[in-house]
Write a structure and sequence with these properties.
Blueprint (H helix, E strand, L loop, with lengths): L2 H4 L7 E6 L4 E4 L1 H7 L19 E6 L29 E7 L8 E5 L7 E8 L2 E8 L4 E6 L2 E6 L5 E6 L6 E4 L11 H5 L21 H4 L4 H11 L5 E8 L2 E12 L2 E11 L1 H33 L8 H15 L4 E4 L6 H11 L7 E5 L5 H9 L16 H4 L4 E5 L6 H13 L1 E2 L8 E2 L3 E6 L3 H6 L5 H7 L2 E4 L10 H16 L4 E2 L1 H9 L5 H15 L3 E2 L6 H5 L19 H19 L4 H8 L3 H11 L3 H8 L1
Parallel strand pairs: 15-20, 15-21, 16-17, 17-20, 22-23
Antiparallel strand pairs: 1-2, 1-14, 3-4, 3-10, 4-5, 6-7, 7-8, 8-9, 10-11, 12-13, 13-14, 18-19
Helix pairs in contact: 6-8, 7-8, 11-13, 14-16, 18-19
Length: about 625
């Protein structure tokens, strides 16, 4: 080799020069290293071919993408049943060449499941074998006993190790540049010879071979051929994939006077750079997801702040509603009148991705039947007497947001079909109109009656019920969450005090009465009772300030029930102590362990209160913990 022929091998860039017909004249050492054409590093084995009985281990992160065109059926070549496997799936498999289908082992993942890793671990002829795909790190790893064979990929790769069926020694393992060496997974499994590695590797002669013999057809290779024959001009700084390897390349024409005689391709391997870029992009995506989650949690906290309560039942309902807010599905709120369905509907909207869109409320029971269709869907001018201009309906106004159909059980059967159509097609027509109007809306419906019973009675369409009953949330009545009454009273009174600009307190007798009342009208009834009491009372609200039906609602006892009842007669001292202990326990339960509020409820001083807690061995912190 003369002095000038050595120069290309001294360059840091990969250099490939071809003549005008595409035949290689220069293929320097760096280019061979980049594309793995000569492989003299790593464990050694001679050239050979796969044979029946050889043990085959496969790790392919995207079946069919960069493995010679593998298909699920090709897995039968190693005795693997491909049932369920599709192109594009990640596959790890172990089998023997020539075995019957079903004797091999396989695991696979769909593209949308490739988040962490896929691992298959088994034993064949006392050899411990692992086939592993680490998706975040983009590593295909095959482990034979303690020996590890890694293949790092950028986009896709098919990795494989073959053990000799007789000697159990490694006779082939996949490595960088397999496409150039024609050693794609499918080719080897189909019986194509593979080249030796390590001390068995031979110098691969590239001179005067056509470029397409070494490199599969790609945009860069086509451009190289076009520049070489004069169809295109020089190209600089293009990033591309050649044989699955990311490179940055430039193409320069070679001329002899006015004649184009070839072209030179300069290549820089940017595998590490691309890996860093991908890691950065993934880190940014992860950060964005984390930020979005934090923002979502913030909106959820703000949205559900108006819903007061710490009882297990209300906390469970709030958690379900928060999850419902994350989806775009229809929600059905069930519960008695006054349980807060409107509050929940608005909270779900504010916590959802539609929070910046409109929230449109409509009570289906409050609008006359002859006007309800126009109110919901709007009307065209002249569509009926009095329609002097066109009007947008509630559904059109809710576009991009949420519409809340309260008391949907009161919706006439004739309109239920139209609501069903909107749910199915996301479109409707105005009254008297012909043009279909598309809408992007979420529907939240509410009912204070048993819709399933109405369906069985023929008063509500079954198909509509199943459409709106995607996420069903039942709100508990106030009588089933008595432990929230104290918090509700405090919250409602604070709002009313701001409204009437006066500060008032409730006597402990009033607390007892309100606590023991059954509240058939739920929170709405409680609000009305407290507003009346605050307007009618002096500085302290007494039992006489409450409506008489509230007083008589406590089993006819005009003064309500006490915090405690005397269960058994005995020494007066024991009765008093038992009553004090039960009163303390009940007050702490009502106030969720809040000592100050419990003192106010019992109307005793701080010193006396804590002395009695110590006397009876009561820990107020337990009541706080139970409420969390």
């Amino acid at each position: 080799m003369d002095f000038y022929s050595k120069i290309p091998d001294l360059m840091d860039e990969g250099i490939i020069a071809i003549d005008s017909e595409g035949y290689i004249k220069i293929y320097n050492r760096m280019a061979k290293n980049i594309f793995g054409i000569n492989f003299n590093e790593g464990p050694s084995y001679p050239e050979g071919v796969i044979k029946d009985g050889d043990i085959v281990v496969v790790a392919d992160n995207m079946l069919g993408a960069d493995d010679g065109g593998m298909t699920p059926e090709d897995l039968k070549l190693i005795g693997v049943n491909p049932c369920g496997v599709e192109l594009g799936y990640a596959v790890v498999a172990v089998g023997r060449k020539g075995d019957k289908t079903g004797q091999g082992y396989v695991k696979f993942l769909k593209p949308d499941q490739m988040a962490n890793e896929l691992l298959l671990k088994t034993s064949v002829d006392d050899i411990v074998i692992e086939s592993h795909i680490n998706f975040p790190r983009r590593i295909l790893r095959i482990k034979i006993n303690d020996k590890i064979y890694d293949y790092e990929y950028i986009w896709a790769a098919g990795h494989m190790v073959i053990l000799d069926g007789s000697t159990k020694c490694v006779k082939f393992y996949q490595s960088k540049g397999y496409t150039s060496r024609k050693e794609d997974m499918k080719f080897i499994l189909m019986g194509q010879h593979f080249k030796g590695k390590g001390r068995y590797s031979k110098v691969f002669e590239t001179y005067n071979k056509h470029i397409l013999e070494l490199h599969s057809d790609s945009e860069v290779v086509r451009k190289l051929l076009n520049v070489a024959c004069g169809k295109e001009n020089d190209i600089k700084g293009v990033e591309s994939l050649i044989n699955g390897i990311p490179v940055r390349c430039s193409i320069k024409a070679v001329t002899d006077g006015a004649e184009r005689i070839g072209a030179i391709l300069e290549i820089v391997d940017i595998t590490e750079l691309k890996a860093m870029q991908i890691e950065r992009e993934e880190a940014l995506i992860t950060l964005k997801k984390l930020q979005d989650k934090m923002i979502s949690e913030k909106y959820k906290r703000q949205a559900f702040k108006a819903i007061i309560g710490q009882s297990p039942k209300i906390k469970q309902v709030i958690e379900i509603a928060k999850k419902a807010a994350e989806a775009n599905s229809t929600v059905l709120l069930l519960g008695e009148s006054g349980t807060g369905k409107n509050l929940f509907a608005e909270a779900i909207h504010k916590a959802s991705s539609r929070r910046n869109g409109p929230f449109i409320y409509i009570n289906c029971a409050s609008i006359p039947e002859n006007l309800l269709e126009s109110e919901l869907f709007g009307h065209e001018k002249g569509s009926f007497t009095g329609a002097v201009s066109e009007k947008k309906g509630k559904f059109e106004m809710a576009n991009g947001g949420t519409i809340f159909l309260d008391e949907i059980n009161e919706l006439p059967v004739t309109l239920q079909a139209k609501i069903l159509h909107v749910l199915q097609s996301k479109s409707f027509t105005r009254v008297g109109g012909l043009k279909s109007i598309d809408v992007d809306i979420r529907i939240i419906a509410a009912s204070n009656k048993d819709l399933e019973q109405l369906v069985s009675q023929g008063k509500f369409r079954g198909d509509l019920f199943y459409r709106i009953n995607v996420i069903s949330i039942t709100l508990p009545p106030l009588r089933e969450r008595k432990e929230d009454i104290y918090l509700l009273i405090e919250n409602i009174c604070n709002k009313l005090e701001d409204k009437i600009n006066k500060r008032k307190k409730l006597s402990h007798e009033v607390y007892n009465i309100l606590y023991n009342y059954e509240w058939p009208g739920n929170i709405r009834e409680l609000e009305n009772v407290l507003e009346r009491a605050m307007l009618m009372s002096g500085d302290i609200i007494q039992p006489g300030d409450l409506p008489e039906y509230i007083l008589r609602g406590n089993n006819g006892n005009i003064h309500g029930k006490a915090l405690v009842d005397v269960k058994d007669l005995g020494p007066m001292r024991d009765i008093v102590e038992e009553a004090e202990k039960r009163a303390l326990l009940k007050a702490l339960k009502i106030t969720k362990g809040n000592g100050k509020k419990a003192m106010e409820l019992l109307q005793i001083g701080k010193t006396n209160f804590y002395e009695k807690l110590k006397k009876f061995g009561i820990e107020s912190s337990k009541f706080r913990n139970n409420s969390s």
